[in-house]
Amino acid sequence: MTATDSESRGVQTAPVAVDISHLTKTFGGLAAVDDVTISVPERRIHGILGPNGAGKTTVLNMVSGFVSADAGRIDVFGEDVTRMKPFQIARRGVARTYQNIRLFPGMTVLETVIAGAYLQRSSTILGAILLSPAERRERREMRDRAAELLEKVGVRADHGTLAETLSYGDQRRVEIARALATNPRVLLLDEPTAGMNDVESEAVGLLLRELRDLGLTLILIEHNMRLVEEFCESVSVMNSGAVLAQGEPTWCLEQDDVKEAYFGKRSDAARIATLRRARRGPGGA
């Protein structure tokens, strides 16, 4: 389905935050991403779905500058960032988390989140060396902001605890808090609820909705279909590097091409019914 088709399925137009146009990336002769076009409006929770190996993470890697595109263009709030380095894209308000959690070894929970805030520092090198009043004030503000973000994402552990010793779910929350410390306008999340139970996943979904309401644009890769249908306002479904469908989550997940990508050509009706029930939750009709 095209972007125009998706709009006809009830996805409303709005100013575009991230505009991906004809993006292509090849590794060793294999097209990991093949002519992908995705537009995500401002203040939208947009999901990128698809089976393993579909090219989802490669798309996020190109948007954040960690992988260079072979062809195509990426605009963030109207500015071409296709050839920019990761730190340049980050300075334009794009932050991300990763499929495999990347915390700094030996850092406490609070220090890990403070590290994300250094992108926004205004004090000078000399001020840092001399520990000037402005430097002390900025450090205090960074600590306060980090503590506030940890509370917002639901981390209850002592802030002096080593981040790497936390539970898997709490490590993911710390990673989200660190990304938020950069004061992003766009947040890219690669499987943010992986390893979480239903209650924890719901809490993350509510957090994403709150961030959206505060003005952020969120793009997430997610395999939890209940979360996708409840919290994503639009999705792009990928397979073998290409986009199969775009639009409202429920509509996209009902498309034959999407079912085939997940279950094969001879889709088992019982397995599809099980997936639908899982999306609706206990007692769903």
TrEMBL record:
PROSITE patterns: ABC_TRANSPORTER_1 (PS00211), ABC_TRANSPORTER_2 (PS50893). GO terms for cellular component: plasma membrane. It comes from the Bacteria. InterPro entries: AAA+_ATPase, ABC_AA/LPS_Transport, ABC_transporter-like_ATP-bd, ABC_transporter-like_CS, P-loop_NTPase. Pfam families: ABC_tran (PF00005). Keywords: ATP-binding, Nucleotide-binding, Transport. The keyword Endoplasmic reticulum does not apply. One of its GO terms (molecular function) is ATP binding. Gene3D superfamilies: P-loop containing nucleotide triphosphate hydrolases. Transmembrane segments: none annotated. This is Branched-chain amino acid transport system ATP-binding protein. It comes from Nocardioides lianchengensis.
